[in-house]
Amino acid sequence: MSDQMSYGTFEAAQEKSKAIEADIHTHPERYRVLTGDRPTGKLHIGHLFGSLQNRVRLSRLGVHTFIVIADYQVLTDRETFEAIAENTRQLTIDYLAAGIVPNERTHIFPHSHVPELNQLLLPFLTLVTNAELNRNPTVKEEIAASGMKNITAGMYTYPVHQAADILFCKGNTVPVGKDQLPHLELTRVIARRFNERFASGMPVFPEPQALLSAAPTLLGLDGGQKMSKSRNNAIMLCATEEETASLIKKAKTDSERLITYDPEKRPEVANLLLIISLCTGEKPEAIAARIGDQGSGALKRLLTESLNEYIKPLRAERRRLEADPAYIRSVLKAGIESSRAIAVDTLAEVRAAMHMEL
Ligand code: TRP
Questions:
Q1: In sequence order, which residues have a C-beta less than 8 Å from that of residue 264 and are 6 or more positions away?
Q2: C-beta of 73 in contact with ligand 1 (< 6 A)
């Protein structure tokens, strides 16, 4: 096989994403959304505004939605695995509390429980070259960031596994952030090569496109960097009102008393204004003008109030769900069952295309 794949540009992905966004409202039935997360812990408000609300919106439009909890992927970049099941439950609680409603069109499932999905990995691995996997920019960054010396084959091949996550249900639309675009490019290459090699004239797989979120990326409370639990700069969805207040009190701002919205020159203050804006719907500039010269104390008080008020119902629902582990288990069981039924059919089609049916 020749190695012709190139990891495409952000602009091209943005164009396609816009076209899908324009069409999905009028034709939700044309779309099959597959998205997901690694179960590495509970979610924070960056996830809520960045990806969760978008998923809720899509599933409310009536789009068939699959949410994969990528528990095998956790093994690629972490030493620890003991917490995977607990993290899977907590992730599910966060999804439900954020408004995902599991039903016949919306499924939440951990991929380790869907064997036929995982089996797709084997033919898929024969459709990409080592050179292509080595060039994946996201994997390269993750390897550099981890400081790992001995890189496992799992690290280089998890994007192929991700293609199985997406293609087992013939997902054609994948809401993700920019860092996942190389994986989607690879998924399209795998779908195309599978169709060409084994199923000419009768394509088995669609070539899925990214749906890039319009939501801005939140910075952490320490300013400079993206909000992330591992950087200890996040407000978790499960935090209490008091914890939220004390985290915000310690948030980094600057010494200028007059509050203005200037993301370039005053990123920390702008980020806090942005969070208020996401909670209240008011423009960040207008919020800044209202606070005026009352300084960052007033800004932080307003943020604490707005955020706590805004996520009050989510947190109440979260507490209710945490007290009902049997329900969480039943949601995952139903998600696994319906995903598995689909995976069984897809694998049968794949085997038939590869002339392996007896
Ligand atoms: N790799 C993704 C992440 O780290 C998680 C993921 C696994 C995923 N499988 C997926 C995302 C399929 C979208 C589609 O966040």
A1: none
A2: yes
